[in-house]
Design a protein that fits this description.
Number of helices of chain A: 5
Strand order of the largest sheet of chain A: 10-1-2-11-12
CATH superfamily of chain A: Aminohydrolase, N-terminal nucleophile (Ntn) domain
Largest sheet of chain A: 5 strands, antiparallel
Oligomer: homodimer
Helix content of chain A: 25-40%
Radius of gyration of chain A: 23 Å
Structural class of chain A: alpha+beta
Shape of chain A: globular
Distance between the termini of chain A: 46 Å
Number of domains of chain A: 1
Number of strands of chain A: 13
């Protein structure tokens, strides 16, 4: 399994990926899922991948040479000459479809689904930063102001904190912290997501990666997050009042509000309905 | 979809269920997923169900009259004369298999999977409280000291808080609070889980339900949890240091620890590897 996050904020982009790959529980390996394509001063692009490793590796390989037709008399479009991130996403979609043409029928014959998904983000020249989610059919969607992040892989455990904290105005360092908390929750609940992590921060308009760091279990900041977050969460939890059942002198009695709906079905011996 | 939780603590049992049922996004209904079977002073049993509603409703109906063979010369075992919760789980498994015999072939013909799962907990006479997770094949597992809760349905969003907080020694009211926080995270992240909620608390050896409450959006306690939890979570998040990149004078520099692994692959224009 995999967990990858891509964030698009006003201040820049943040990418985080784990490195666990497994084929069953007894075949666990470490594969990096982040790759950066960069021509400093001209373009910065980062790709995160999830799904079948043979597919995503092939896509990454092909992406470097993939070309799609341009207007008449113009050079075909590659990731290195594309004028917009939208075109780069189209080139990526085309690479995915090429791998599908090559491997899809044999995979199908073997009963294996063609499963792969990608987060692609970056900036080219004077264009604004953009972030895409590319599906296994090669189609894609783009992040907007309302939905400023994408997740691929094992995304559910780590989604609540992103939902609660992130907005487009979140500063970059805080966003990196948020991504790491989200990853920490996922690591705790799912064995098939594992260290080391790759974290990349891109500052708007810099046209090259700003911070790139590989995080393993000895990283002091991630260790601090891992220990502090769980502890503080328990403190907050303990700080919230327990329910009060009778509604006597409490501010938030739990029994209030129960009159609106019928209580659930309660069945007594011999099938008579008690309530 | 559905989200249900069953907890087995030293002090008692806690059950919580939502009530959203959907068949596609345009057919959303409210169905209660908790049912209590009770003979005060003799036995208390609570059943939560997830999966295909036609299956779980049929199982609930059949369960009231289902019997499995007992030893020679003894009366067949029903949920009302079973001497142990283990036998009740067997009766439930038998009811699930009966529905499979009745509906399974037609469902298969229609391309519909036979999907249903159940949390069953309770206490009979002098036996200890027990909690089971029953699968759609009628087989089941039991909660232990190490794994003291079961979830069915949309379980991932709400699992981190259970993992971090619950132990067998958690007091009942605190456990109810924990279940509600877990439900709140799930409600926030998944539209297919919805109010009202059914919450039931059973105190050990009481042989009847202790607290039963139906919680809708006007319930003051759940409203308080909903507002407070998100707010405090953000406060905790803000209270954790942002990463420091250069490792200068900080306690938890993020860049430290990055020497152990190669940085991820970085590809420059024309395919040369930059790093």
């Amino acid at each position: 399994m995999t967990y990858c996050i891509g964030l698009r904020l006003n201040a820049g982009l943040v990418f985080l990926s784990d490195s666990r790959t497994n084929a069953g529980l007894d075949a666990i390996s470490t594969f990096r899922k982040m790759i950066v394509y960069e021509k400093p001063g001209d373009r910065f692009m980062c790709l995160l991948s999830a799904g079948n490793l043979s597919i995503s590796q092939s896509v990454r390989e092909i992406l470097q040479v993939e070309k799609i037709p341009a207007g008449e008399g113009e050079e075909p479009i590659s990731i290195w000459n594309a004028k917009s991130m939208f075109d780069v996403a189209r080139v990526l979609g085309s690479a995915v479809r090429r791998v599908y043409q090559q491997d899809g029928p044999s995979l199908k014959q073997a009963g294996i689904d063609f499963v792969a998904s990608f987060i692609l983000g970056g900036q080219i020249g004077n264009e604004a930063m953009r972030l895409f989610l590319v599906y296994s059919a090669g189609n894609f969607i783009e992040a907007t102001r309302e939905t400023c992040f994408f997740q691929i892989g094992e995304s559910k455990y780590g989604k609540p904190i992103l939902d609660r904290v992130l907005t487009p105005t979140t500063p970059l360092d805080e966003a990196a912290k948020c991504a790491l908390v989200s990853m920490d929750s996922t690591l705790k609940s799912n064995l098939s997501v594992g260290l080391p992590l790759d974290l990349l921060v891109y500052r708007a308009d810099s046209l090259q990666a700003d911070q790139v760091v590989c995080i393993d279990e000895r990283n002091p900041y991630f260790k601090m997050i891992h220990e502090t977050w769980g502890e503080r969460l328990r403190e907050v939890f303990e700080g919230i009042d327990d329910p009060v059942w009778d509604g006597g002198d409490a501010n938030h009695p739990l029994m209030v509000g129960s009159e609106r709906h019928e209580p659930m079905k309660k069945i007594g011996h011999a099938g008579e309905k008690i309530v």
